[in-house]
Every structure is written in C-alpha cells, then in structure tokens.
Amino acid sequence: MKFLTLHLTQILAATATAHLVALPYGINLKPTPNQKPLMDLGPVVPPSSDEQPAAPKPPPPQQGGVLISDVMGRDRSINIFAGFTRDIAAISTRLDDGAQNSTVLAPRNSAVEALPRKPWEDPKDYYRLGASAYEGEDGQDRAQRNLRRFVEAHVVPVSPWEEGVKGRTLLEGDREIWWEMKGGVKVIQPDGIEVDSVASRVGNGELWILKGVRNYA
Fold first, then answer.
1. Main-chain phi, psi angles of 21, to 5 degrees
2. N or C, which end of the chain is more exposed by having fewer CB within 10 Å?
3. Do β-strands 205-210 and 102-107 pair in parallel, antiparallel, or remain unpaired?
4. How far is C-alpha 148 from the chain's CA centre?
5. pLDDT at 65
6. pLDDT at 90
7. Where are the beta strands (DSSP E) in the chain?
8. What is the residue-wise DSSP string for 23-59?
C-alpha cells in the first residue's frame, strides 16, 4: 500500500511540474478524451562510435588555370568560329593570354552557314573589284582582313560582363552592345541575338554560344 501511495504521489508531482514548464509557452497539456498511448519505439540506442558523419561534397574543380584557348575547340557546335579564331594571330594570342580577359560570343555553326555570304566576303569588294576580288595574293590579304573584322566583332574585351553594361568589341569603330535577360534568356542587344548557353567560365573569361551572328557592318 505504501508503495502504491508513493507511486501516485510521484505521478502527480511530475504532472504538476510539466504544467508549470509548459504553460509559459502556450502549450496545453490537458488530456484529450480517448487519447491512445504513443507507439512504443523501444529503448533509445546511442549511435555507434564507429559511425562517422557524411563527408561534405567536394567543391567544383577550379578552372583558374584553364584559358579560353583551351576550351574553344571542345564544343563541336562552334568549331567553324573556333577555327577562325586560330586563323587570326592577334585573337589567338589574346585568348591564350591569362592577363587579358574576354567574353567570346561564338556563333553556332548553323548560324555561320546560314549567312548570305562567307564571313571573309564583303559586298563592297565585289562591287569595286568584281568576281576576282579574292583571287591572288591581294585577294587573300583582303579576305584575311574581312575575316579578322568578323572575329573581332564577336569578342568583348571584358569579363565578367555584367547585364546592362554597354561596351564595344575589339572591332574598331563598332557600335556599343550590351545584354539583358528576356524570358530567362540572355539576349545580345541591339541585335536581339539569343545566347544559347554560357559554355565555359575560365581563368581569362567566358565563352558564350550564340544562336545568331552579329550585324557589325
């Protein structure tokens, strides 16, 4: 009998203590009618000392030592333009220089192939010189100059290039260009050319793949 009385006294004391603790926090410990007992989950087993917490995922690899020249040929969708950059010594040297940052706007092969003329052709040359405008040594030099203009018009000497910031490409006399987000897509303005993707971010800049070709004339 004494044991039962002591047991009831302990239960009442614990209940009163629980009410005193819970009331300041707005918790109602009033018993719910027909409340079912909680599921018996068994004894709590402490974690084994042999179990180690999961290791954090390693950070993405650093690309500080990689240059634009290293990644230009990786994407076959722009290999025509990538070949042009290698043909122009000044551009090739720049993209291989870790001290000069650039944002390369590389048109897709399909965009270059859809042009009404070759990137090294200029209607003004045909008007002045006729069909032989690109024949002989002088013609080759003329074609090389035109190709250089084409490539320079697709290289912005800035990286990172922030949205809305106006700037000029390497092409002398080129007009100002900028980019903005439209419907979740980067668009080069004022030409309205969509950026298909940012293919690479490397030590000396970024490589953007364009769905079109800049009108720099």
1. -75, -40
2. N
3. parallel
4. 28
5. 86
6. 96
7. 102-107, 155-156, 178-182, 185-189, 193-202, 205-210
8. GGGT---PPPTTPPPPP---PPPPPPTT--PPPPPPP
Element (H, E) at 5: helix 2-22
Q: How far apart are CA 101 and CA 22, in angstroms?
A: 63
CB-CB neighbours of 90 under 10 Å: 11
5: its two tokens? 């009385």
pTM of the model: 0.70
Do the Cβ atoms of 154 and 165 come closer than 8 Å? no
pLDDT number for residue 64 = 59
Tell me whether strands 155-156 and 178-182 are parallel, antiparallel or unpaired.
Answer: unpaired
Sheet with 205-210, edge to edge strand ranges: 155-156, 102-107, 205-210, 193-202, 185-189, 178-182
pLDDT tens digits, 33-91:
444 443 343 444 454 545 444 443 333 343 558 999 999 989 999 999 999 999 999 99
pLDDT, residue 63, reads 55
Whether a cis peptide bond, with omega within 30° of 0, leads into 190 is yes
Question: Are 213 and 203 within 8 A, CB to CB?
Answer: no
How far apart CA 33 and CA 35 sit, in angstroms, is: 5
Write down the pLDDT at residue 42.
Answer: 45
Cα separation, 149 vs 155, whole angstroms: 10
Angle between helices 79-87 and 136-152 (to 10 degrees): 120
- 75 to 3, 30, 82, 202, 212: CA distances (angstroms): 83, 69, 9, 15, 16
